[in-house]
Amino acid sequence: MTQKKAAASAEKRAKAAKKKTPKIRVVLKPRQAKLLEGLVEGKSVRAAALEAGYSANTAAHPEDLLDTVAMRKALNHLLAPPEKIAARINEGLDAMETRFFQFQGEVTEARNVIAWGERRAYAELAARLKGLTPGLPFDPNTDGPSNITVNYINVAALAEP
What we know:
Blueprint lengths: L1 H18 L10 H11 L4 H8 L3 H4 L2 H5 L2 H10 L3 H11 L3 E8 L2 E9 L1 H14 L25 H5 L2
């Protein structure tokens, strides 16, 4: 009977261990917690930092505030995983919008059209994330896009007096 109780107890512990999800506990300082709270509310890093009690000079350098182990862990826990972010960017590359047409105050027709502005913004974001930012200096010795300019000259027109 003792062995049965021990086996049953072991099974219960095994089931309980499987059910538990790991909790991510990050210990933040009070100002860091207020900063994170402001970011979650949608404020800019600078505005959230000033509201959290950081000086204007410190708030002007958000990379210093966010580049700590505790803040990275907390942000990683709160933000969407990279796969979801990539999926949303890819969806944005195919963005559409609905245009409504009206006559005398009544909607007569609705059409789905390509949202060129949204697509451009998502394409630029995807390019930046892949390291293909337009406007950066280009090194022809690396693997990357290259631009070639071709000028056509009408030789016959140059030869005639």
